[in-house]
TrEMBL record:
Residue ranges annotated for the PAC domain, each copy included: 88-140
Organism: Paenibacillus aceris
Listed name of the protein: PAS domain S-box-containing protein
Residue ranges annotated for the GGDEF domain, each copy included: 172-190
Record PROSITE patterns: GGDEF, PAC
Coiled-coil stretches: none
A Pfam short name: PAS_9
Length: 190
């Protein structure tokens, strides 16, 4: 995929005129872009350069950097905004210039003209990687023993419950094997 060698942001007519608005937008969100209803980019903040390495030219170039697990949801969010003219949010991972993935919270905001007709959609993105990393650590702590890192009783109970539900739903039996190794349960329960 070739990207534009021009690293300057695509400029939007009303953002060219109002320096205050442009400065506010550039600083309020980690990434900001505006697309017309056909998916053509009409504005992208300069912050795209350090994040993905270039200023995208259209919707698909932005979508290509989103983890494939979330790409369809990103497309659905665009279509939903086109159809309903309402805003919506989505969290997804996006590949950065360092080839690592960062988490972003994206809000799609409809932009309508004086007649109320949808003319553009803006996407405001905030990097939430730190928050997601903290959430993942808390989940790991809740379901794993802090000393050994092994799954704990809480995780066992949740997985057992899921297996029971699946066995009931599919009408297939399953087995559970319980082994007491050198009275380890008695030690572990203390």
């Amino acid at each position: 995929m070739s990207h534009s060698a021009d690293l300057s942001p695509v400029t939007h007519p009303w953002l060219q005129k109002d320096i205050f608005v442009r400065q506010f937008i550039e600083q309020a969100w980690d990434l900001f872009c505006i697309f017309d209803v056909h998916g053509n980019l009409t504005y992208a903040s300069k912050s795209f350069n350090p994040v993905i390495g270039f200023i995208p030219e259209d919707f698909q170039q932005v979508a290509d950097f989103i983890d494939s697990e979330y790409r369809m949801d990103f497309h659905k969010m665009f279509i939903k905004t086109l159809q309903t003219s309402t805003s919506s949010k989505l969290e997804f991972r996006m590949k950065g210039t360092s080839e690592s993935f960062n988490w972003f919270e994206c809000t799609a905001l409809p932009i309508c003209n004086e007649d109320g007709t949808l003319t553009e959609i803006s996407f405001v993105l905030n990097d939430i990687t730190l928050r997601k990393n903290h959430e993942n650590r808390l989940i790991a702590m809740a379901f794993h023993d802090p000393l050994t890192g092994l799954p704990n009783r809480r995780l066992f109970k949740e997985q057992l419950q899921q297996m029971l539900l699946q066995a009931k739903r599919t009408n297939r039996p399953f087995a559970l094997l319980y082994i007491d190794i050198d009275d380890f349960k008695m030690i572990n329960d203390k």
